[in-house]
Specification:
This is Serpentine receptor class gamma. It comes from Caenorhabditis nigoni. This protein is mainly alpha-helical. The chain has one domain. About 75% of the residues lie in helices and about 0% in strands.
Length: about 160
């Protein structure tokens, strides 16, 4: 015991622990049922966006919106795996003897920091997507081609959004 912290490092009961498989251990693997198809779908979105010609890409999806969508996906997947490694794997008992056999280090702290950072990214990205969508509605790519009277309507639309905020 060191500074009120009890460690399993070097304790023979934990080093000699033998893992047994039962149904309660398999429950943490249920999220993989939807995570794997999500990864496949996002990979298809990524490939489809990058395989289009540049003119068609600009028409179908804004580049900034696409970048935020991809970063949101990466943040979600990263958070899922750090959360899985932080909570589900240790609770299952798969790594009990391994953790008892190695000396304490900062890798687990790094895992927690990455997971918390990704959690904050997940919280802020929907707000950023909304801001990008308002900017897309307010300022078109082809604004030089828009007649003067439509520019006034565009400014009125932007000011309506500004009053809501």
């Amino acid at each position: 015991m060191q500074d009120g912290f009890i460690s399993i490092n070097g304790v023979s009961q934990y080093i000699d622990f033998r893992f047994t498989l039962n149904y309660t251990i398999l429950i943490p693997t249920v999220p993989f049922v939807y995570i794997i198809p999500t990864i496949v779908i996002m990979w298809k979105v990524y490939r489809g966006y990058h395989n289009q010609s540049s003119n068609l890409t600009k028409l179908t999806l804004d580049g900034h919106l696409y970048a935020l969508l991809m970063f949101y996906f990466v943040a979600n997947i990263s958070f899922f795996f750090t959360d899985f490694l932080r909570f589900n794997i240790p609770v299952s008992g798969l790594v009990t003897s391994l953790c008892a056999g190695i000396s304490p280090n900062r890798y687990f702290t790094l895992l927690i920091a990455i997971g918390d950072y990704m959690n904050y990214c997940i919280l802020i990205l929907p707000f950023l997507v909304s801001v990008v969508r308002i900017i897309i509605l307010s300022f078109a790519y082809n604004q030089k081609k828009v007649p003067y009277e439509n520019k006034q309507n565009r400014n009125q639309l932007f000011f309506r959004f500004e009053h809501v905020l």
